[in-house]
Structure formats: structure tokens, C-alpha cells
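#dry-run=false #mode=assembly
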Amino acid sequence: MSGAAVIALAGNPNAGKTSLFNRLTGRQGRVGNYPGVTVELLGGTLALPGGGEARIVDVPGSYSLLVRSREEEIAVAQLGLGGGPRPEAIVVCVDATNLLRNLYQVLQLQELGARVVIALTMVDELERGRIDSDALSARLDCPVVPVNAPRGQGLDALRKAIAEQLEQPAPEPRFRWQPSEALATELARVRAALPPEWEAGDAAALWALQCYGGEGAFETDSPAVARAVEGSALSGEAVDDEVIQARYRWLDRELGDLVVVPDSRVASERADRILIHPVWGLLVFIAFMFVLFQSLFAWADPAIGAVEALFGTLAELAQGVLPEGLLADFVIEGLIGGVGSVVVFLPQILLLFFFIGLMEDSGYMARVAYLMDRVMRSMGLHGRAFVPMLSGFACAVPAIMATRTMERHRDRLLTMLVVPLMTCSARLPVYTLIIAALFPAGHMMGVLPIQGTLMIAMYMVSVLTALGAAWVLSKTMLPAPPAALVLELPPYRMPRLADVTRMMWSRTRYFLTEAGTVILACTVVLWMLLSFPRDLDLSRDYEAAIAAAGSNEDAIAALEAEQRGEQLRGSYAGQLGKVIEPVIAPLGFDWKIGIGLIGAFAAREVFVATMGVVYSAGEDVDEESTTLRERMRAEVRADGAPVYTPLVGLSLMVFFALACQCMSTVAVVKRETGGYRWPAFLLAYMTALAWLASFVVYQGGRLLGFA
Amino acid sequence: MGAAGVVVRVSGARPVRRRLMELGLVPGTRVAVVNVAPLGDPLELDVRGCKLSIRHHEAAEIELEDSPDAPPRKRLKVRQ
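#status=ok
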């Protein structure tokens, strides 16, 4: 909007930027999403003293203004680089416990000629809790305001300093070092090639020279800039050497005496003696993962039950209000069922993001990446992929969203493509039904309980397949040199509940609005497939039969179940089931299982309910339902052989383990990758894998003489 | 526990080298290996009081000398 000044908030990662942003905007921030790539850009309103207002944008934390990827380029565009609109002022969050490295970025911004205000954070962690901020301000020639955002200290002074800066004329670009003659020549040459909107002269030329030049570098959209950078007589390394060393030389010389040793470091080092210890560190990590996993699995359960109950009540209410018919069916099964299928993810998403927020804000996430880097790298995965993979045991949807902790797009993508292979909780009802219906409760070789062992085997299959798939994909589809790991292990800090919950809400809101709409649309489509056409020629007049049954409720229920079953078998989904039968027959499945597979695309657990309707086992079947199990066991083929043998059960479970039968996952991958390409690939490769594996299991089993 | 010394030169792929230098690993800076991850990789370095983790592969590109006035040079390597 015109009129209001734009203030950018920049700074190193872990410098307390999020906390400051939350306090400055009074929690009014909104998560934005840049089209095509997911860079979270937060914007909010900043009240200034004297009644004025400014717009404040939160730039993702970085150590430098130099970029290596499209995502980083979008981030620094907020600071006026690469042709982005220049903010009126830039507030830089500077971590006082790591003064010089944080001020490095301030020097870069001053070279651009930006109005810089320094918000000095973490001062309370310094020895004696102070630092000479006046001297710092004088030597850097810009306002320096010590702040303690969580306690709300220094915020008014910061607002005042920002307002005062906005009154001042923009400073001249300020280089603290003298470029060598060779570099000055190159800067002049590149500067001449820059598009006019790149305003910042020498600093912009230097930035282009460092970001866009050389092998493996990121490419600019502007061919003129690319050509100019290409023609540089100086090697990229020589430029980097000169510039970075010159800045650090100035920092060391001019500000070295102001550096104060932080107290927090000792405690942090002591904690790390245990937390990244080869034995204790791994044990603590495993224990923590156990708690996280357990919470997603068991603790979220009551909340999931409550959500389901709530939507059940809603459906009943609607049933009472609406006249029976198509509209009621649509509202109850399509709409309420659809919204419910989105909202049911909330408990797990909230919990997972709560834990991730705790891990990120405390500094533990960096240690997880450190501990797991070696294992994950051998599969081509990023060290931080561990948490999403484990979360995949609960649900792939929040797990895919959790891949955002990785910087490189390729690493995120690879993780997203294998996370859906992990045994999520939605597969459990299916496994439970099949195992209970088709496998005896006895023991194998006298010791191993058959049912439990099968369940564990299914989990192991999923982990091995996911790791194997990651390895194969990283060798074929997504080849990349392992990203060099340059990871800061920040000092441990107590996470702030307010910041963690805020992050949790903003990511959850993104899920509800972005993925939720797609999931809802798919649910409605699926509902239509399962409920149309409605004017079927049924084998008998059920209404008359029901009327004839009079007050015999059991008979009515049986008739209604039979009617629903017949309608489903005649529906588009039922017809589709017959169409796909030749394809799934080699796996041992008939067309009725095909209907279940189509229904399971909405969500795997729907399989159980769909099978219930197909076999007319009554309304409220779940995996414990004995009627459904008996009907499945009694189901025979045309030749009288049973449809469901243990071999078919195994084949079906393998199919469920590997197939991507979850449109929520597909929807989330589509949102996170910004296109249809990767979700389509995910769907294709997992389905192919599932088909092949089931084929091998079923046909192999038959060859070995199993039924 | 491992190598320690003063940075003489950082080599290797440009983006990584640049990132390391921007994090303060410029010639003349003291650096020490303070931890090795459970499976032998990556390493934890202390640079200007900040803890940085990099892998052996990148660490091998950092050339150190024992101190500014003692010439023998070495690469940043750690006993396993």
C-alpha cells in the first residue's frame, strides 16, 4: 500500500527475530506464500510513536545477503536486492552473544545505502548483562537499541529509533573498505549492465558478481547481468576473498574491543556434553523421539475421537433439520464428511508442530540434524529429514509440512516423496481388519504370535521401502551432490510458549486454507462417485419390503444395509471397480475389493467402512466388527473358492503399505511443491510400486503352493 | 580433542567456501574441533565462540597453522 513506510526485519537465524517480530506487530502477522515456492514471508503492522504506522515484513533469517537459491533470492528481494522494492528502513536483529558475525550483515546493508536500525538481542546472556551499545552506535553510525522482546524491554525505544530514522534522509552507500583497483574496474563494468530498478550501484554490482558468477552458481533472470558477471576478469573466489576478508578485518579492528563473552555458552557446552555424546546423546534423542511419536499416536487419539464425535453430532443435527434426499446426503456425507476429513488431521498437526517449534526454538533441532546427518546422508537424505520421516508414522500430511525445516528444495522434495511410504496411522485399521479376519491368532513356531509379528513386519517393510526409495530416487530422479553441511549449533535457549504456539497456528492455518480446500473438493468428488447414479434398477423393491417388515427393526436394518450395498455396487465407483478388475486381478483382488481401493483413495481407513457397505454388513462397521470379518471370510468366487485367503490378505496389506491412497497427501505435496508434476509422480511411482510388490507376493505365493 | 589452529586458507566449492568465510572462518581466525558426531561425521567446530558443524569433506578444505608465528601447516583433520 502506498503511504505507509515499509520496514524490513532482517538478521541471522537464531538471533531472536521471530520473537521481536511478534512483539512489534502485536501478533497481527499473516503468513504469506510466494507463488511456486514456499517461502514464508510474514507481514504485519508496526505502530510508531506519534500515531503513525508502518508495514513490517519479516525476512527469513540468513547469515549473509548473498543467495544460493531461488528461495533465498525471494527473501533478499525484500531488502531491495536483485530489483526488489527497497524498504524505507531495515531493522537488523543482532545477537549480542555473537556480535561480529551478526554485524557482518549490517556492513552489507550499509553498503547498499539502507537506513539501518540495530535491535541488539540476547544482551541478558552476556557476562554482567551489558554491552557498550553507545560506542557500538557511534562506530557503526546507526542507532543501536538493546531489546529483550520476550520481556517487552526496549521496544518503545526501538519504535522511536525507527520513526527518527524515517525522518532522516537516506544515508549514502557506505563502504568500510576500499575495493582493489581490479575489483573497482569490475564493479563499474557490472554496474553499467544492471537494470535501472537495481538502484544500489556498487553494492548491487558486487552482490550480482558474488551471487551469479561461476560454476554451480544460481542463475539470474537478467541476461545482461549474467553476461556482465560472466565477463569478469577476476575469479569469483578472488572477489569473495577480498570482500569477506576486508569486512571482517574492519569488524575485528574497529569493534573487536566491544565483544563481550556470553555466560550462556558454558551451560550450553555442558548440555552438549550429554546431548551430542555418542552414547548418551543418541539415547536422549531416541527417548525424545519416542515421546514425540507416542504423542502423535496415542495422545492425539482422544482429540481425534472428539473431532470425529463432533462431526458425527453435526451430521445428526443436519439429518434432523434437512428433509431426506439428495441435499441431505450431500450435506451430511459430502460436506460435513469432507470438512471432517480435513479437520481430523488437526490434533496431530498441532502436536507435531508444537514439538517441532520446541525443537527449533530450543536449539535442539540443529543437534538432531548433527546426530542423524551420517545415517540420512547415506540414503541421499538431509539430516533434518529424520523428524519428518518419523512423523510419517503418525500421518504423512503434517510430516510433509515439516520438511520446511530443510533449506534446499531438492532435499525437501526427496523427503516428501518417501514420507508417504511410512506406515501412517490410517493404515492401521486396514491391517487390523485384514489380520484379524484372515490370520489365525496362534503362534508361529510356537513362540511368535502370528498377528503381532505380521503387524511389526508391515512396519519394517515400510521403513525399508522408504529408505530404499530415497536411495534410488537420489541416484536417479534427484541426483545432487550431498549439500555441504554448514550448520550452526546455536546455544540452548528456553523456548517461549508464545512463539511456539504462534508458529504452530500459522502453519496450521496454512494447512486448513491451502490443503484443506483441495481435500474437501476431492472428498466431494469421491462422495459423488460412491453415491451416483441414484436411479438404479434395484433387484427388489426395498421400500415396500421395509414397509412390509413393519416394526421388526432387525429386519429393517438388514434390508437397509442390503439396499446400500446394492446401490454402492451399482454406483460409478462400483462400475469403476469392475473396470479396474482386470488390472487388480493378478494381485488376487476382485472388483469388490476394487471399490474399496477407490474409496480408500479418500483416506485409507475409509476402506473398512466401504467394505462394510459393499458386503452390506450394516452401518457402523469398524475394524473390530465381527460381522464384517465373517462376511469377508464367507465371500466366495464364482468357482466357490474363498475370495479372501491369507495370501490375498498379505497381498492387500502390501498394496496398502506402498500405494499412495491418500488424496490429502497428494494435496499437500501439490501445495508444497507448487505444481502438479511432483504429486502426479508421487501417485504414479507409489501405485506402480504397490502393484508390482503385490503382484510378486500373490503370484509368488501361488507358485510356492499357497492358495 | 582434535585439531586446533589458525585458518590460513579455505578452499573447495565456491558457495560452501564463501558461506564458511562469511561465518567468520577467514584467514587469521582461531578454530578448534570440539566434537565428532556419533558415527564419525560431521564435526563440531568452535569459531569465534560460535559452534559450527561441517563434514570431514569440507573440513579437509580448511588449511590451518598452529599459530600465527609457527609456520608448520596442516589440514583440519581429526583422529578417529
